[in-house]
Description:
It is a single chain. By secondary structure, the protein is mainly beta. About 0% of the residues lie in helices and about 55% in strands. The two termini are about 25 Å apart.
Amino acid sequence: MIKAILLLITMILIAGCTSRNVIKSDKGAEAQSHYKIIRHDLKVVLNPKEHRFIAEDTITVPEHLKTDLRFRIHSGFKIEPDVAIIKEGVIIKSEDVPIESFLVRLPYDTNTFTLKYSGAIHYPLEQDGKEEARGIKQTLGIISEEGVYLEKESYWYPVFDNGLVTFNLHIELPSEWDAVSQGERLLHVK
């Protein structure tokens, strides 16, 4: 039932038959130098039984953005950066998602850095409006044995101030599952 209710925004994982997927979203990558477009190369391993995931995100920023960078990510994640980051504080969003704010100061000759992080996201489905046959259930994000739904507002990946991104997404998930995201699928291993 949950799988039928989940909607696609950033990433949905549903029952299927693959164990690894690579999805690429490069729309506008050629304009990266003119705009504040940040590139994510994400490698994600899901553990639905524990409501957890492990991620490694190699982040590339345009040359003109190499000063202080701020990002927000779901509170409580274990974060291992390869550059210096400063925790600025915990913020509670209006949707009740606890997030932490971090400041990144890149070395002069660097515009790429990597964050390894892991944590749990499990906001149960809630009824939106009247509970009828056509009623809609929503979640801010969930990793469970019934399915996974992660969107930008769950802050499962580093969200920078400008919000514009391109990405590669490599996903490892249970063998009977499949992954769906925006962009072009480059690899689909069963």
